[in-house]
Amino acid sequence: xxxxxxxxxxxxxxxxxxxxxxxxxxxxxxxxxxxxxxxxxxxxxxxxxxxxxxxxxxxxxxxxxxxxxxxxxxxxxxxxxxxxxxxxxxxxxxxxxxxxxxxxxxxxxxxxxxxxxxxxxxxxxxxxxxxxxxxxxxxxxxxxxxxxxxxxxxxxxxxxxxxxxxxxxxxxxxxxxxxxxxxxxxxxxxxxxxxxxxxxxxxxxxxxxxxxxxxxxxxxxxxxxxxxxxxxxxxxxxxxxxxxxxxxxxxxxxxxxxxxxxxxxxxxxxxxxxxxxxxxxxxxxxxxxxxxxxxxxxxxxxxxxxxxxxxxxxxxxxxxxxxxxxxxxxxxxxxxxxxxxxxxxxxxxxxxxxxxxxxxxxxxxxxxxxxxxxxxxxxxxxxxxxxxxxxxxxxxxxxxxxxxxxxxxxxxxxxxxxxxxxxxxxxxxxxxxxxxxxxxxxxxxxxxxxxxxxxxxx
Length: 458
Ligand SMILES: C[S@@+](CC[C@H](N)C(=O)[O-])C[C@H]1O[C@@H](n2cnc3c(N)ncnc32)[C@H](O)[C@@H]1O
Hints:
The protein is mainly β and 458 residues long. The protein contains five helices and 29 strands.
């Protein structure tokens, strides 16, 4: 109660505060004089200084097409064109009054012909033309949007979010802006609020320990997961090189094997920045090392491979091809607690995938699903949740799976963070239930077992 009272006091001083509670409700204190909006996401304008910072952070220039999703009075769209010379800027806004206001503001700014304000629901509109997307929505809307951003935006597209993060998808850059106006504050206090491994994590967002707003920037990464093969030329022939990459959003890990005159294997440390991929093997016995720096385009990676052997480095123009995979099918494995078999069904629809999680005779959609090229990543909160109580399993919690297709199976890692009360653990004090993190192998089964009698929609 104390916290709520403090926020109300703050809202009186600063104008607007929105609170999410563990029940998922928004308590919204809209700015005086603003329209009520028709969504659970309230209208709160980004301070003009912070709007400039967002566009600066995204490095907007005359080549860019900027989309502000939930564009309010149009200030970000107008600033993108007027102050950063964006080729085009588009606002999508659900409130018709704000659309009218934005169009008037664009006329007044003299840039009406270079901007567009589309009335409608940002979750349903097409924004694949964007090279920059700006957001000031909330934690949950960001999480809801991220699979669509991954599937429809080109690698390298910049996403800038005022205040709110993307859960376990950590930002590539964060800027603290010392705006005197607070804007929105999202507080969701739930069992996973401070767990950096799951989408509920809010650790990147604003806290009460500072007066700063935060702005975060992400680059949409290329799809790099899978098995890549290329040849390394040596004076008397060539060596086969196989790189295996696992991907979770922007995070890439992997291993390599080189077979030839020298047989080397080991881990690679990788960085992915849009379609720019760099990886290096751990130096083998202090002598041999592979270092790649290049770009990924669909199933080809191309760039420079530096091979260091016995103190000598050769730099080669190098390319590798990814083994083609088919992710569709019903993938079955034993649940984290080992009691029963569960299935992830992956189907192709239009130009993307839809995934469904099946447990016994129940099924739930897996909306947070990513095709990473040669593999997949998904997250799903199983069991009763703050959004409306899915009843699928008694042993609920966050389930995260990452795997690539290898020898006809999905292989990677499964993580399960059980819901449940904190328990006393001797000298360690109160601890949340222990996560289960283990290697994951899912095999393709002919079809998911039994008829699905209970589809539970979100
Ligand atoms: C916090 S305001 C941000 C306004 C503007 N982007 C800014 O930063 O100044 C969020 C805006 O999103 C709009 N909005 C909420 N839900 C929406 C939806 N489903 N589709 C489109 N706009 C939506 C609201 O009406 C509101 O104007």
